Amino acid sequence: MKYFPLLWAGLWRKKARTVFTLLSIVVAFLLFGMLQGVNAAFQQGVNNANVNRLVVTSRISLTEALPISQQQQIASVPGVAGVAYAVWFGAYYQDPKNFVFATPVDIEQYLHVVPEVKVAADQVAALQRDRTGLIVGSALMQKYGWKIGQRISLHSTIWVNKYDGTSDWPFNIVGTYSFTGDDSQNQGAFFNYRYLDEARTFGTGTVGWWIVSVKDPNQSAQIANAIDTRFANSQDETKSQSEKEFAQSFLKQFGDINFIVKAILGAVFFTLLFLTGNTMMQSVRERVPELAVLKTLGFSDAKVMTLVLAESLLLCVIAAALGLLLACLIFPALKSVVGTVTLPPDVLASGAIVAVLLALATGGLPAWRAQRLAIVDALAGR
């Protein structure tokens, strides 16, 4: 700590240059925090996928419907513990920007297969009694200020209600649910499949995909193959995969997010490497006589090199801390998109590591030059 005033004075020798370099690094780490935070939030859904479940879709595409008559055949496959279904409803509330992942299900079957969804028994019974009932995730209830007993309307981008000829579907909120272990899953809603199936103008008797729980996760691959074999060469061939594989393939429909994030950050930090490296080289070049004086006063070559590296480290760590702090403050604004309100700790940890590596990379060459500095030549201006 006794050398801190010396480091601080050297860092602010050229205030304008230091400020602009600092801002560049702050922006880079703000971008790092936001992008890696979004990437980590999306990957969380993949990592939280249950190893005891399979997702069965049409072999053609996820949007291709499957007949509900397949349920008994899937349930009869050895190793299957339970079968539930869901349909893509494509809903939004009042404005297309307010997407709601509302899913028509048989609630009893769904809760058996997906026990992470917690709903009070009386609210499950209320949904089963009310044809237009809706059970809403706790986060979605809070987002729109909904209350149990309230009547709302969701607009479907897919299904038309044959009773009124519109795509607006009225619901009575009869309960709320919470999803254990993943807050991002509390943004959805469940309603009765029979309500959709009786009122839609097409697709009657079909579902979007099957959710299959298995007795032994070590047998998942064999059970998936058995399900697909059962419907091979039929009009409704299936593609069965683990929940994790399904989540990964679903994300890739929007693009390889992980690759996109890494490509953007790679370009940013590659540019930053040259910018900060040039700043440190210029700073050392301007202080060659001063470094020579330090050596004359008894500073060893190793100590001078350490001082230069420490100055680079101080600049990068302060700027990185500011950038990541800004990311922590801004990230909660993305809750409606990523479903989480805090920047994951591993993003902050990786940011700290990147800051140290950046400091070593940009300060390494100037420090090596300072270490090799000959006192006579430096004082002579050679």
From TrEMBL:
InterPro entries: ABC-4/HrtB_transporter, ABC3_permease_C, MacB_PCD. Residues 23-229 form the MacB-like periplasmic core domain. Keywords: Cell membrane, Membrane, Transmembrane, Transmembrane helix. One of its GO terms (cellular component) is plasma membrane. It comes from the Bacteria. It is found in: Cell membrane. Its main location: membrane. This is FtsX-like permease family protein. It comes from Solimonas marina.
